[in-house]
Structure formats: structure tokens, C-alpha cells
Design brief:
- It contains 12 helices and 9 strands.
- It has a 9-stranded mixed β-sheet.
- The chain has 2 domains: 32-98, no CATH class; 112-351, Aldolase class I (TIM Barrel, Alpha-Beta Barrel), CATH 3.20.20.
- It is an alpha/beta fold.
- Strand 2, helix 6 (158-169) and strand 3 (176-181) form a beta-alpha-beta unit.
């Protein structure tokens, strides 16, 4: 058996009691747009708020210059003060190591630029396409494989969306559209409702998949306006959340997930295997258990995409396979995420 120091795991309260009224928005809190605008964007403020030793600031400033800090208050509240090894903090704290450029780490690790036939549209796999529905994110994860993505070149205007939608309409082999970004839910509900309506008018489309972190980092994003357009579409709705550690799932996240499920959304999760965050059997098993308690099914466990600035998060393939083998000994099969790598040019994710 592989032994590692277990990442810290907290156990927030479980799902709402049966019959409990689910509050969509607490009037005492600002709306999600205001929370998004108020996110911390200064490494000095992040270090000060978390009472980190001043020795962390030079490295944080170096990393911030390469990829800015962005941490919403709702996510900050789940990070332990005065603990630089907190698994949530490690996902958002810039480091000097981000300036290192080891061989094999590149700005476009998935070669997405080669699969962009229309502005804001990525077509890599059969039967489905991905739309960059928003260039914005609610949180800047330090390992993000699109941290260097040319969003300004892939942010369609309404007229350009018409060209992109025509591409989808003209290809009857497509049955699924994936909204991504950035984070697609950083767009307004007015824009997302418009896009959803245009997509559902294309007869050969069956599913709308949304890859997002916003319901996790700002749970108030799942409000009545969002639920209205989600509930209205004829398309089957799948939401793939991005959660790497059990501590990210607090009561507000659980309640947001309950609202999504009430709107007919199937909830899946994909994680990235990250050194110092979730590279232990205890952390990964706690994550799967907590996901299932929140009504989310574990889906993928990705090994790190080799993007410039993120090499310090890497876990070797050998370690990853051994971790998953040990994880199978403690989890039932339906809670086992699939260990995969995305290889440019392949027809699907590559199992490890």
C-alpha cells in the first residue's frame, strides 16, 4: 500500500433534511455578480486575509504577474487561516515556481488552437462541440490548462455567434454542445437563455453540457433566474462541476446542487490530481464520498495537463495508477472516478 500524509479533510454538514425549504438567495448577501466583482485580486490582500507569513508574498507576487489572483469571498471562507498547506489555498495561491519552464510544459497543452473552426468553437471529438461561452472565471485556479488561452480571439459577438451556430446546425452528426470557458456561468442569464434557446432549436441536438466551477466557488450563482432557463430547455441537461477536495463542498454548495437537481440537471464531477491537494487515498476517498452525499457522481480524475506554470502540481503516472489501485480497495465501483489523460489528437480521453 502507498502511504502519504493525508490532505486535511473537513466534513461540513450533510444534505438538507427531507422536506426542508431550499432558499435560492439570502437577501443578507450580495448577489452573485456583486460577489464576482468583489473577488480578491491582489496577492497582498490574499496573504493578509489568511494571515500568511510575509515570506510567501514575494513568490505570490511573482506568480500573480504571470496569472492574476482571483478568489471569491465565498471560497476564501473555506480556507484555513495561517495554513499555507491548506488544500484549497494551494489551488489559488500564486507561487514563484510558476515562472519555471520545464521541458514539455507549453501554453497550449491540448493543442486547442488547431481545432477551432469558428470563433469560440472547439471541435475535437465526434458528436459534440465545445463553445467558449464566457472568457471570464470566478476563480483563477493555478493549474488551469487554459491560463494562456487567447480569449479575446474567441469571444464571439452576436453576429459571430450566428456563424458558430450555423456550423452546428449544418453538421447533423453533432448531438451535444458543451458550454465552457473561462466559466460559462460567468455570463448573464439573459445571454445564456438566448444561447440555450438557439441551441434547442437545432433538431439534431439532444444534450446541453455545462462545465463550470461557479456553483462551487459562488453557490449563490444558482439563483431563480438561472433555474428558469435551465428548467425551460427541451435539451437534456448535464452539469460537470470541478471539485478537487472534499473541503470545497460546504452546506451552501450542497443546497445549490439540490436546486440544480430539482431543475432536472444531472450532476457529475471531474477533478485534477494535484500534488499537495488531493494526492492521497484519504483525500480522494473523502472527496468521492462527499460528492455522493451532495448528489454528484464522480466522473473523471484527470492527470495534470502540462501547461506552463503548473509543473509543481504534477503527480507521476506511476503514482497516479498506484493511488487509484489503492482507492479501489476502499470505495465501491460507482464512486470510482476514471483516471484519464487528454492527449491531443486522440478521439477521446485516454484511460491510464
Amino acid at each position: 500500500m502507498i502511504t502519504r500524509s493525508p490532505a486535511n479533510v473537513q466534513t461540513p454538514s450533510s444534505m438538507p433534511e427531507s422536506g426542508r425549504r431550499i432558499v435560492v438567495h439570502d437577501e443578507a448577501r450580495p448577489g452573485w455578480q456583486a460577489q464576482l466583482a468583489a473577488a480578491i485580486r491582489d496577492p497582498r490582500e490574499l496573504c493578509r486575509r489568511l494571515n500568511l507569513d510575509p515570506g510567501w508574498l514575494p513568490g505570490a507576487s511573482t506568480g500573480h504577474a504571470l496569472f492574476e489572483v482571483r478568489v471569491p469571498e465565498a471560497y476564501l471562507a473555506r480556507i484555513r487561516v495561517n495554513d499555507p498547506q491548506d488544500p484549497l489555498l494551494r489551488q489559488v495561491l500564486p507561487l514563484a515556481a510558476e515562472s519555471e519552464t520545464p521541458i514539455g510544459y507549453v501554453q497550449d497543452p491540448l493543442q486547442e488552437a488547431e481545432h477551432t473552426p469558428r470563433r469560440g468553437l472547439i471541435h475535437k471529438y465526434a458528436s459534440r462541440v465545445l463553445l467558449i461561452a464566457s472568457p471570464a472565471c470566478a476563480i483563477n485556479c493555478r493549474y488551469c490548462f487554459r491560463r494562456h488561452f487567447p480569449y479575446q480571439e474567441n469571444a464571439p459577438s452576436r453576429a459571430q455567434w450566428d456563424d458558430t451556430l450555423a456550423y452546428i446546425r449544418d453538421d447533423p452528426s453533432l448531438n451535444e454542445v458543451i458550454l465552457s470557458g473561462g466559466d460559462p456561468l460567468a455570463s448573464s442569464d439573459r445571454q445564456l437563455a438566448w444561447l440555450s434557446q438557439r441551441l434547442e432549436s437545432i433538431a439534431h441536438l439532444k444534450r446541453l453540457r455545462i462545465h463550470t466551477r461557479l456553483p462551487v466557488v459562488i453557490p449563490d450563482r444558482v439563483d431563480a433566474s438561472m433555474l428558469d432557463w435551465l428548467s425551460a430547455t427541451r435539451l437534456q441537461k448535464v452539469m460537470v462541476l470541478h471539485i478537487n477536495h472534499a473541503n470545497e463542498i460546504d452546506t451552501a454548495v450542497v443546497e445549490a446542487c439540490a436546486r440544480l437537481k430539482q431543475a432536472g440537471v444531472t450532476l457529475l464531477n471531474q477533478s485534477v490530481l494535484l500534488r499537495g491537494v488531493n494526492d492521497s487515498v484519504s483525500a480522494l476517498s473523502a472527496l468521492s464520498e462527499r460528492l455522493f452525499e451532495a448528489g454528484i457522481l464522480p466522473y473523471y480524475l484527470h492527470v495534470l495537463d502540462p501547461v506552463t506554470g503548473a509543473a509543481h502540481f504534477d503527480v507521476t503516472d506511476e503514482e497516479a495508477r498506484a493511488l487509484v489501485a489503492d482507492l479501489r480497495e476502499v470505495l465501491p465501483g460507482f464512486l470510482m472516478p476514471r483516471l484519464v489523460r487528454e492527449v491531443p489528437g486522440e478521439a477521446s480521453k485516454t484511460p491510464l
